[in-house]
Amino acid sequence: MNNRWEWLETAMAGVSGTASCWFRDLETGETFGWQEEAVHSSASIIKIFLMAFLFRKFRDGELHPEDRMEIRPELIAPSAGVLSYLRDLRELSVRDLIELMIIVSDNSATNVLIDLAGMDEVNAFLAEELGLRQTRVRRKMMDLDAIARGQDNTTSAMEAGIVLERMRQGTLIGPEESREMLRVLKNQQDSSLIPWYLREELPEHSIAHKTGGLDHVVHDAALVDLPERPYILCFFGSGVSVPVYGRLMQDASLRIYREQTEKE
User: Which helix (H) or strand (E) holds 256?
Assistant: First the structure.
């Protein structure tokens, strides 16, 4: 057992439900995993992967960020976001829909983009181009009937972390696309989990991350972009007490950050 991680292994083992963690120091390559390949309902984490697919289409000239998309009533979804409240809005650019999908986790914007992308095409990209095994898109956001039929969006802590690592390396789609995707993720407005205590420690826009949540599901996948010791940290929880596991994520994130900065 790696003594550095014994405290976290003990904490994760005590979680009721399926708890996963994946950490990688991007300077040293040190990696820690706990059920990191367990398949979870992705909740809004799937939006990272959809964004990556759309940026590939930008790169290849198959889509332009300023292309306009109709906001059709049947694509409006409840819960996260703002589009369900803007009744007079008829269309937005693909770029603006991506921004809304990530920074306020807008479910309606996501549904418009899933319709644009096509689930089969996205899944082929995930499997064949990114080599991901656990991550798939099978439903639109807040499609509870699809979930009841067993058609859920899925991913794992490790696969989310690997995609963030490739963004940091500039190898996910391409260097320019990677930088732009990280910029969007650094503007995400929900800082209640991995960034919670780090907001007072780091400059603004230092953490590129995406949260996700459903009933008894809470995830956060993050790149903590320290100048000297950047690292990936992903916590996923399914069938968990959201407040209890959320607090574990906050506390563990702070301890890992302090350990990383002590090494500098």
Answer: helix 242-263
pLDDT in tens, 49-87: 999 999 999 999 999 999 999 998 888 887 778 898 887
How large is the greatest C-alpha to C-alpha distance in the chain, in angstroms? Answer: 58
Position 225, amino acid: D
Location of structure tokens 């969006």:
153
Three-class DSSP category at 48: helix
Look up the domain containing 21 and give its range: 3-263
Q: How many domains does the chain have?
A: 1
How is residue 126 annotated by DSSP? I
Tell me the CATH number at 81. Answer: 3.40.710.10
Phi-psi region of 87 (alpha: psi -120 to 50; beta: other; left: phi over 0): alpha
Distance in angstroms (rounded) separating the CA atoms of residues 70 and 107: 15
Q: How far apart are CA 34 and CA 214, in angstroms?
A: 21
Percent of the chain with pLDDT over 90: 87
